[in-house]
Design goal:
The complex is a heterotrimer of chains A (502), B (498) and C (213). By secondary structure, chain A is α+β, with helices and mostly antiparallel strands. Chain A is built from 18 helices and 12 strands. Chain B folds into 2 domains: 230 residues, no CATH class; 253 residues, no CATH class. In chain B, the strands form 3 sheets. Chain B has a 6-stranded mixed β-barrel. In chain B, strands 2-3 form a two-stranded antiparallel sheet. Classes of the chains: A alpha+beta (502), B alpha+beta (498), C alpha/beta (213).
Chain lengths: 502, 498, 213
């Protein structure tokens, strides 16, 4: 009778014993696979922590280089303010950098200006600022004294204006200082659109769809020598709210009084508009994994346009990432230790169970030896048995681990699903109906971009490579355990074996 | 022969089998205890993430309300109420889980080693190109005219606090106490100064300096009062000051108390600018801020407002919760599978002894006796194995803790290195815009509020749980495995095996 | 040259007490030998040595003139001898049919042999443990006979059966000697069985003595 036949008979006849053995191998294998899958998921969750904290590196014009500055003459012959004439970041630069650095998840360009706003061209009354300054000057500005003063510098009643290429990627929104609660985001291709704060809208009785008018400050007009004031109509397409608190001495500097618009819009009325509308003050880059920001910025700083006499400088904002590095590393290590423990214990248990299973067959082994079946033959039988059982157990383990992974996946809070629902709930029926098809599409897209662009989805899944590893490891372990246990049996004289049992 | 004796003989004679079983239970018990200990440590690490991002809520006067300002042609004065210690205490009463709080205010003060002697030089670190010039001009001004109001430029910043350990400079990691101790509001005549300033002036902890108002504060006929103050602590700045003029630099701050100020200054307000409250778990800040804003003093046109900046905590809430869930699932899996394996092994061991049971039954032993024997055996082995697992679990816990400690130290050291500034080859700077926690300090990457130490240790409660669970599991497994045994007639049992 | 030979074989369990002392004996084919003696005197040990289940402390066991160590104990057990154990030693997860065919590939001859030994068609396919002691004994005998070896070593083959079966077994063994020329060496307490042997040895105090019949 061949080893194969004996193995077959053993496995099929000694059902209970083998099922228990199979079950033990199966659950140890399941635990091992699940542990590994869960570990990967935890790593993704940690990545999410970093992504949620965000961070960016910024490319700015090299204003340290004095050769890039000039002092122009005013129209009236007086010296005007020294101004920067060096190169400014542009979409072209952004795209060129994007193509050369891996792992970027997006970029955003923006510039800051100031503008005065009114909602009625008949009275041209400036919008009322949201009070958020805590200095006495601001209080004064808001009080009646100011109203009658003619010496007021219109700076204090102006609004901060931020142009951007894609407001959803503007660092204020990405960094969650602000979030869009109504309407939609804007991008560089548009003209005559703006996003203002909800507080400002409420204070001035404005809603989405209303038109406001932007104009330059007196000081800007004076510098350029322009006497006629141009008012540009702008449609409010989005409202944002603030998270957190910021200290300002003057209300006009507060983010509550900031308006997001596009360079094209600026161009339609402002003397401060740059000649090339694809020219911005700052360029922000975001990384898929914020932990890479530092090395990316370092790489960038070696590029030709960067450097002491270069056109641009790089700066990095990743403090939160650096701060959480320690605790996150700790979590990593603790989990690694846990997983290692699990694997070691699994190995020990399997070894013990398999060894004792062989040792308990001492009598049977004795019989085979007494019949003259060679040791190699007997070993082969045991190896075949355990191989079959192990293969089956590991296969089932793949399925059970998958179920566990799915359960884990369902337990998780995924940002993507939650935020999309939030955004959609906020859109009131009236507004969503008034949006035409293209804009509605835009809404879906930009809202999705804003909320889903950041967090990598956690997928709890069993990797094919892990399965392969499991099979190989368990088989090797089983063979080794059976081999060594059998060896100890073979060292006994058959007679001793047989006499042990009779 | 009693069940006890039979159990004893079995354990003694079947040594190898018993040792293997003992070892199995030991391994499973160790794994369980270690898993629980690691889980707790992971939770602490997550708490650390929140603590590191920190956060506090602020109580301050409602200055945005223009009705509270008295405006005249020279400027304005805030007439509303300012935060006091009483307010802080009444707020704190309503909150659980506060780590601590601190009220602060800032003034200017002149410092010298003796009353009326030269003002101490301070650290020149302003970004304005004329900073050093202003300071030396001010010194000569004061030298020739003691009443000169230029003395403002050689004044130190007096930073009053009620509990310096909770002052935002220290809590945010901008400053670290390197020698001496912190101060509390009850004290008079104490101060913490910068270590650089101390070194510059040959001062150390225990020395006395004298504080006085700058001339700007005094009316034309008022004489300055000199108050002796003992240096009880030294701080260092993590990063560098971001200010135009040295007099405003945090390096030149002196931390002291209102009591001290009141011994010499014309300002005797008794109130402070702001109160910062810290939570043991930053997750609770939001709820705390809400509780506070419901208090009477904080209603809409009230005197005070609460503000909270916890956007980072909010941002990481979901990912951290996910980590928590994944870890819990893993732990549950481990415990469950450990229990199943133990059950299977115990069951099969009992089933193996069917012949023995048959023999005992045939000689007249009752089923209860036999069951008792098995229970006694497994109880003995389980108790010993669980007891030993406390030590093995402890060893694993210690090893885990040590692995982490090494790395934590390395991390902290790296973080404390000041970043490369533009003087190096690459123009690559660190920028911390809109950083409320450290508005005055740049380049600081030290951690924030003190982190709860991660301790990987076996809790007594976990041990108790282990013993109870293991014993119950063992008894149940043995009992249930014995049932079929006892349902057979002895004759059947014996014939099975002969 | 004898089929099997014990040449100055001594054996001791622990190096002190000699169970077998300097035993020499020859066993020929076509003969049945019985070894009798008091219990616990080493009869089973002697059989084990003949079958290569154990090795002597000194001396050698020869098969066809060659030391079985040279042949290889495993090979010797496979090709030259087969055992009938006192406690049957059957594989518990195999049927009588499978147990009988363990040592040879010929399943065809197993069934007839088992039938001849009184087992029914259904019995040969049942799990061995479900058979009675006597039936199991016969399966063990069938296995040994089917192995096709020249030598059969039987340890108390009738120890657990009744007189009728005893007779049956004795007849079978005798038959295999006469019809297939095997050398059968039986260790037994039974005087009846011993009486049927061609030669009887008495093992006492470690010494083997041929008995006069």
């Amino acid at each position: 009778m061949s080893s194969f036949r004996r193995a077959f008979l053993y496995v099929t006849r000694k059902r209970t014993k083998n099922i228990i053995l199979l079950f033990i191998i199966f659950i140890v294998a399941t635990l091992a696979l699940s542990a590994i899958a869960l570990r990967s998921a935890v790593e993704t969750a940690q990545l999410n922590v970093r992504q949620a904290l965000g961070g960016y590196f910024a490319v700015s014009p090299n204003t340290e280089d004095s050769s890039k500055w000039e002092t122009p003459l005013n129209a009236d012959g007086t010296s005007g303010e020294r101004r920067f004439i060096g190169e400014m970041p542009s979409t072209a630069l952004a795209e060129s950098i994007s193509s050369q650095i891996d792992g970027l998840s997006g970029f955003s360009l923006s510039s800051s200006y100031r503008a005065r706003i009114c909602k009625d061209l008949n009275d041209k009354e400036d919008l009322s600022l949201v009070p958020c300054g805590n200095g006495y000057v601001d209080a004064r500005m808001q009080s009646d004294i100011y109203q009658s003063s003619v010496e007021a510098n219109d700076y204090y009643i102006s609004f901060g204006l931020q142009t951007c290429t894609n407001s959803s990627l503007d660092y204020n929104f990405v960094g969650k200082a602000l979030s869009l609660i109504e309407g939609r985001h804007i991008d560089a291709s548009e003209t005559g659109v703006a996003i203002i704060s909800e507080e400002l809208a409420e204070r001035n009785g404005l809603t989405i769809g209303d038109t406001i008018y932007l104009r330059d400050l007196d000081s800007s007009l004076k510098t350029s020598g322009k006497t006629e004031v141009e008012y540009a109509p702008v449609s409010i397409v989005g409202l944002f709210e603030l998270h957190g608190t910021y200290e300002n001495e003057f209300s006009c500097d507060g983010i509550e009084n900031m308006i997001f618009t596009t360079q094209n819009t600026l161009k339609s009325y402002s003397v401060d508009s740059p000649n090339d509308s694809d020219s911005y003050e700052n360029l922000y880059f975001y990384a898929e994994d914020p932990v890479e920001l530092e090395s990316m910025a370092e790489t960038l700083s070696t590029f030709p346009q960067f450097g002491r006499d270069g056109d641009f400088t790089v700066s990095i904002n990743n403090r939160s990432i650096l701060l959480v590095e320690g605790p996150l590393t700790n979590i990593n290590q603790l989990i690694t230790i846990l997983i290692l423990l699990v694997l070691i214990v699994g190995v020990i248990i399997l070894w013990l169970v398999l060894s004792s299973q062989i040792k308990s067959r001492i009598h049977e082994t004795g019989i085979f030896l007494s019949i003259g079946i060679g040791k190699a033959n007997i070993l082969l039988q045991y190896i075949i048995e355990i191989t079959v059982i192990t293969l089956i157990a590991c296969t089932i383990a793949v399925f059970s681990s998958n179920i566990i992974s799915k359960t884990a996946g369902n337990l998780l809070l995924q940002d993507t699903i939650a935020s999309v629902t939030e955004e959609q709930d906020v859109l009131s029926p009236a507004i969503s109906q008034s949006l035409d098809d293209s804009e509605e599409q835009n809404t879906q897209n930009s809202n999705n971009t804003a909320s889903t662009s950041l967090l990598t989805e956690i997928s709890v899944s069993i990797q094919a490579s892990d399965v392969l590893l499991l099979f190989i490891a368990v088989l090797l372990l089983a063979w080794l355990a059976v081999f060594i246990a059998s060896i100890s049996l073979f060292r006994l004289k058959p007679r001793e074996i047989l006499s042990k049992m009779s | 022969m009693s069940s006890f004796r039979r159990a004893f003989l079995y354990l003694k004679r079947k040594r190898i089998k018993t040792i293997i079983l003992f070892f199995l239970i030991l391994v499973l018990a160790t794994l369980s205890l270690s898993a629980l200990a690691l889980k707790d440590a992971i939770e602490t690490a997550q708490l650390n993430v929140r603590q590191v991002l920190g956060g506090y809520f602020t109580v301050e006067a409602n200055m945005t309300d223009s009705d509270k300002w008295l405006i005249n042609e020279y400027g304005g004065k805030y007439t509303g109420e300012m935060p006091t210690v009483d307010l802080a205490e009444s707020v704190a009463e309503n909150l659980d889980g506060l780590l601590g709080y601190n009220l602060y205010d800032t003034f200017k003060t002149r410092v010298s080693k003796e009353p009326g002697s030269y003002d101490l030089p301070f650290i020149i670190c302003g970004s304005n190109q004329f900073d050093a010039e202003f300071v030396s001009d001010a010194r000569s001004s004061v030298g020739s005219d003691p009443d000169s109001t230029d003395d403002y430029n050689i004044s130190f910043g007096a930073h009053l606090c009620t509990d310096s350990a909770f002052d935002y400079y220290f809590m945010s990691g901008g400053l670290t106490l390197v020698e001496g101790r912190h101060i509390k509001m009850e004290e008079t005549g104490v101060a913490i100064i910068g270590e650089e300033v101390a070194k510059l002036n040959g001062l150390k902890v225990g020395d006395t300096v004298y504080l006085r108002d700058p001339n700007l504060y005094l009316d034309s006929d008022e004489e300055p009062v000199y108050a002796p103050v003992t240096i009880v602590g030294l701080f260092k700045v993590n990063g560098r000051s971001n200010c135009e003029f040295s007099t405003d630099a945090v390096e030149n701050n002196i931390f002291t108390t209102q009591n001290t100020l009141q011994t010499y200054s014309v300002y005797k307000t008794g109130s402070y600018t702001k109160i910062h409250f810290y939570a043991e778990d930053p997750d609770e800040l939001e709820e705390m801020a809400e509780t506070v804003s419901a208090l009477p003093q904080f209603k809409d046109d009230g005197d005070f407002i609460v503000s909270l900046d916890n956007k980072e905590i909010l941002a990481v809430k979901k990912p951290l919760e996910n980590i928590h869930r994944l870890v819990m699932l893993l732990i549950v899996l481990i415990l469950m599978i450990g229990a199943v394996i133990l059950w299977l092994i115990l069951s099969s061991r009992i089933k193996e002894r069917i012949r023995e049971a048959g023999i005992l039954l045939s000689i007249g032993k009752g089923k209860g006796d036999i069951l008792l024997q098995y229970i006694l055996e497994i109880t003995a082995v389980t108790l010993v194995a669980c007891a030993v697992s406390i030590f093995s679990g402890g060893v694993i816990a210690k090893t885990a803790a040590n692995t982490m400690l090494e790395d934590t130290i390395t991390n902290v050291l790296e973080e404390q290195q000041p970043p490369q500034t533009s003087s190096s080859q690459s123009i690559f700077t660190y920028v911390i815009p809109d950083d409320l926690q450290n508005p005055d300090i740049v380049g600081n990457t030290a951690s924030t509020q003190p982190l709860t130490e991660i301790s990987v240790s076996i809790q007594a409660s976990d041990v108790l749980l282990l013993f109870i669970a293991a014993l119950l599991l063992a008894w149940l497994a043995v009992f249930i495995a014995s049932i079929p045994l006892f349902r057979l007639k002895p004759r059947e049992i014996l014939s099975k095996m002969s | 040259m004898s089929l099997m030979e014990l040449s100055s074989v001594s054996y001791s369990y622990d190096g002190k007490k000699m169970v077998l002392t300097d035993i020499s004996a020859a066993f020929e084919e076509r003969k049945m030998y019985a070894i009798v003696g008091p219990s616990g005197c080493g009869k089973t040990t002697l059989l084990s040595l003949l079958g290569g289940l154990d090795t002597p402390s000194s001396g050698s066991v020869l098969f066809n003139g060659t030391d079985i160590k040279k042949i290889g104990l495993s090979a010797h057990r496979r090709d030259n001898v087969s055992f009938i154990f006192q406690n049957y030693n059957l594989i518990d997860y195999m049927t009588p049919l499978e147990n009988a065919s363990l040592s040879s590939a010929a399943k065809e001859s197993a069934l007839p042999m088992l039938t001849r030994l009184g087992l029914t068609q259904s019995e040969v396919k049942r799990n061995v443990l479900k058979l009675s002691g006597g039936q199991q004994q016969r399966v063990a005998i069938a296995r040994a006979l089917l192995a096709g070896t020249k030598v059969i070593l039987a340890d108390e083959p009738t120890g657990n059966v009744d007189d009728a079966m005893s007779e049956e077994i004795a007849g079978l063994l005798k038959e295999s000697v006469q019809e297939t020329g095997k050398c059968v060496i039986v260790v037994t307490h039974s005087t009846d069985l011993a009486a049927k042997a061609d030669t009887v040895f008495l093992l006492r105090n470690g010494i083997l003595q041929k008995q006069n019949m």
